[in-house]
Amino acid sequence: MSHHFPTHPIPDGFADAHIKPADYEAMYERSITDRDGFFADMATEFLTWDKPWDAVCSFDFVKGEASWFAGGKLNVSVNCIDRHLPERAEQTAIIWEGDDPKDSRAISYTELKDEVCRLANALRARGVGKGDRVCLYMPMVPEAAIAMLACTRIGAVHTIVFGGFSPEALKDRIQSAECTAVITSDEGLRGGKAVPLKANVDKSLTDCPSVTTCIVVRRTDAEVNMLDGRDVYYDEITATQSTDCEPESMDSEDPLFILYTSGSTGKPKGVLHTTAGYLLQASMSFKYVFDYREGEVYWCTADVGWVTGHSYIVYGPLAVGATTLMFEGVPTYPDAGRCWDVVDKHQVSTFYTAPTAIRALQGKGDSFVTRSSRSSLRILGTVGEPINPEAWEWYFHTVGEGRCPIVDTWWQTETGAHMITPLPGATNMKPGAASMPFFGVEPVLLAEDGSEIEGAGAGYLAIKSSWPSQIRSVYGDHQRMVDTYFSNYPGYYFTGDGATRDEDGYYWITGRVDDVLNVSGHRMGTAEVESAVVLHDSIAEAAVVGFPHDIKGQGIYCYVTPMEGVEPNDALKAELVQLCVEEIGPIAKPDVIQWAPGLPKTRSGKIMRRLLRKIAENELDSLGDTSTLADPGVVDELISNRNA
Ligand code: ATP
Ligand code: MG
């Protein structure tokens, strides 16, 4: 909430956006006061039903129960493909951009239908049917989206495990979801390096007797082990199948997928989403939050292994009939200009990524950006962590040249779709603020005692009433869902995040509740201190945690990564301390600054402050579960630096 960053008005060119300021107010108001009427209209406009619903919404947050469109029937693959065919048969559904800049492919809606049906038939032929769980452990190739949609065609429940996870992590998830089939690839390819996906699957499956089928997509044609009877090649089993497949008509509340959370705070939870409500909010938010226009090319850089990939690479875009770009590689290969090259190559209108990528690219220097045109860009988006205002400004001015609204979308695996976000044509932007609630979302700030905070203030972010794409269960452990989200403050969904609300009603996510600092009785979000530190031109990234302090209760411990080419020294440390004092106040003065060449991140790129706290506290024996770390080596390096 820094005074250095004034509010930005809606840029020119958005006067005809889907949602204008007055529309937002009227629609939001109706979505809360006439929830059933509003969402009935939306469900009619956005989805195609086999049978209409009997009741729009019922919920009981004390018990953690929610139901949307009960009695209705529909099929997700029909909504994402078949119903578009009359007017979009030849339109590109998926643009695939390979790891190697020379590799790309376009798949039309007709081709997508044919491929999905072939695989769906092949799965049925292998005995996979409604309600069965199928694990996807895939690189970012079109077959990943095809496999998701093929599961939905036959009512199977997919559970995607990010291709960067180890055999051990994969095994845990397959066992926990009791999968009967796995779909993988011989190898993946990222940043020029091969990832041995099938070999990893082989290691996991020695302990997964429930799995009777493993389908292998050929990506690199590497030699892999094929177990007779269990392992089959994708091209071989689909070649002979029909391009038509009778869709399974699903109940609104039938399970659609299970997805394990990123694991930033502890043991991942198998979040269960159901069919109609999820698809509705994914498509509504896709159209409105990205102001999607007919014919545009939209690109979300997430992996399909994360919820962002589910809702905003596959289900949201395809349900709306969009052209979605799927990228196999990494933003820094062959060099740090790759994203902008891809934007120019495919004339991308909307670019949606994570703060970790924005900070990394900013750290490489502007020349990688400015060598591209980016004239096709209309909208920018961010998700995953609070974005530091300084990084926001760089994204806005350098990448978007001040033309493109930024949508800072706050949501969670558990929420299924966007919850708090600006809308491009309706919301003035405050750098670093997730801003305003999406339709049907009633956020509240709770005080320690559970009372609701009115007006401007800070507290625990909770949600007061059900939204369509809400988590329905933690797979196999329903009580864990009730305990985690609905027990701390009975009658509310507890997000685990802290937030502030300003005088204009804008929400600012301050970080996870567990990470909140309490310095001499003053509560501060880690994001606030980090944003102050990265204001410095020499600093690329920072992570802040508290540690026990005799006088202040908690002291502030900063891990700081300098920009490439910057030599860290004590003078720079002093400047950073000064910045925190100026930006936030003397109370925010860091007690320790440790240089960190790298920060421990989850595989989706989020900083794991839990581990940093342990290192700061010198509790090195109890680091806990580190299986979701992208690079465990970073931790050893931080420990040895600490003691240096
Ligand atoms: P786990 O729940 O296993 O600890 P996780 O919370 O990182 O993992 P996700 O569901 O992928 O798993 O991430 C959701 C969290 O990411 C949110 O609760 C919030 O802390 C953070 N987040 C996401 N988007 C934003 C945003 N736009 N601004 C601030 N924080 C965000
Ligand atoms: Mg979480």
Automatic annotation (TrEMBL):
Protein name: Acetyl-coenzyme A synthetase
Names of required cofactors: Mg(2+)
PANTHER family, sorted: ACETYL-COENZYME A SYNTHETASE, ACETYL-COENZYME A SYNTHETASE 1
Highest rank taxon of the organism: Bacteria
Database matches in SUPFAM superfamilies: Acetyl-CoA synthetase-like
Alphabetized UniProt keyword annotations: Acetylation, ATP-binding, Ligase, Magnesium, Metal-binding, Nucleotide-binding
HAMAP family: Ac_CoA_synth
List of residues binding ATP: 384-386, 408-413, 497, 512, 523
Top EC category: ligase
Domain AMP-binding enzyme C-terminal: 528-606
Its job: Catalyzes the conversion of acetate into acetyl-CoA (AcCoA), an essential intermediate at the junction of anabolic and catabolic pathways. AcsA undergoes a two-step reaction. In the first half reaction, AcsA combines acetate with ATP to form acetyl-adenylate (AcAMP) intermediate. In the second half reaction, it can then transfer the acetyl group from AcAMP to the sulfhydryl group of CoA, forming the product AcCoA.
Catalytic reaction equation(s): acetate + ATP + CoA = acetyl-CoA + AMP + diphosphate
Modification comment: Acetylated. Deacetylation by the SIR2-homolog deacetylase activates the enzyme.
Residues involved in CoA binding: 190-193, 308, 520
InterPro entries, alphabetized: Ac_CoA_lig (IPR011904), ACAS_N (IPR032387), AMP-bd_C (IPR025110), AMP-bd_C_sf (IPR045851), AMP-binding_CS (IPR020845), AMP-dep_synth/lig_dom (IPR000873), ANL_N_sf (IPR042099)
GO molecular function, one term: acetate-CoA ligase activity
Entry's EC annotation: 6.2.1.1
Residues where Mg(2+) binds: 534, 536, 539
Residue ranges occupied by any AMP-dependent synthetase/ligase domain in the UniProt entry: 85-466
Keyword hit for Nucleotide-binding: yes
Species classification: Bacteria, Pseudomonadati, Pseudomonadota, Gammaproteobacteria, Cellvibrionales
Organism the protein comes from: Congregibacter brevis
Family in the record: Belongs to the ATP-dependent AMP-binding enzyme family.
Domain (Acetyl-coenzyme A synthetase N-terminal) ranges: 24-80
Modification type N6-acetyllysine: residues: 606
